[in-house]
Amino acid sequence: MSGGAGIPDVPAFDASDVRLAIVASTWHTKICDALLAGARNTAADSGIDNPTVVRVLGAIEIPVVAQELTRNHDAVVALGVVIRGETPHFDYVCDAVTQGLTRVSLDSSTPVANGVLTTNSEEQALNRAGLPTSDEDKGAQATAAALTTALTLRELRAEA
Question: EC number(s) on record?
Answer without folding.
Answer: 2.5.1.78
